[in-house]
Design goal:
heterodimer; A: mainly beta; 11 strands; B: 6-stranded mixed β-sheet; 0% helix
């Protein structure tokens, strides 16, 4: 069964550095999402993406964040200048057109900002 | 802003008993309500969902009910088993923009 994949599984970076988290959604899916989950807390919506543009974004998704679908398979989240509080698990998800909203999550990238 | 309240935060039941988790949402435009199970260190896994044109849905031991007027939805797990132990999250979204709001989670312990 196809799955969403994410790389790397763990990223350690220094405060102020840029990071790019990568996701490969399920191939025939059309809707893409990024979430974050601080350890022990709830899953927080960052952004949804459809038809090569952002559909919705949360208050967390400020101008330090950006998303891109650079080719037909990858979906990336960039954090321009990381802060300590960006340390979290970041999940990518995707949805098929015919079951909109039904999201399949990737395994996550654990980001640690030192 | 949009919010989803989830209760209880922790639930402990004996194996074979039922478990009920309740959520309330604030955005009246929400029309899709999924439930996710998350085991420690793993990704959230969709276990059941319900759309706003339906009041109840069942899949084996799991059922979900929706009351749109009251903006409540609930997860019911019957005949609980130790492998049901996990954190369960409810969520609500509007399939127009897909902004998904999660509840705070319920940690379910099923004692053998």
């Amino acid at each position: 069964e196809p799955e969403v994949t994410q790389t790397p599984s763990h990223q350690v970076t220094q405060m102020g550095q840029e990071v790019i988290l990568r996701c490969v959604p399920i191939s025939n899916h059309l809707y893409f999402y990024w979430y974050r989950q601080i350890l022990g807390q709830k899953v927080e919506f960052l952004v949804s993406f459809y038809n090569n543009e952002i559909s919705e974004k949360s208050e967390i998704f400020d101008d330090q964040f950006s998303v891109e679908r650079p080719d037909g398979s990858n979906f990336t989240l960039k954090i321009r200048s990381t802060k300590l509080e960006d340390s979290a698990m970041y999940f990518c998800a995707s949805s098929p057109r015919e079951r909109s909203g039904e999201q399949f999550f990737g395994p996550g990238t654990r980001l640690t900002v030192l | 802003g949009e919010n989803v309240e989830q209760h209880p935060s922790t639930l402990s039941v004996q194996e074979g008993d039922s478990a009920v988790i309740k959520c309330t949402y604030s955005d009246s435009a929400s029309n899709y309500f999924p439930w996710y199970k998350q085991e420690l260190g793993k990704r959230p896994q969709l276990i059941i969902d319900i759309r706003s044109n339906v009041g109840e849905k069942k899949d084996q031991r799991i059922a979900v009910t929706l009351n749109k007027t009251a903006k409540h939805f609930s997860l019911h797990i019957t005949e609980t088993q130790p492998e049901d132990s996990a954190v369960y999250f409810c969520a609500a979204l509007n399939t127009g923009g897909f902004k998904t709001i999660f509840g705070a989670g319920t940690r379910l312990f099923v004692k053998a």
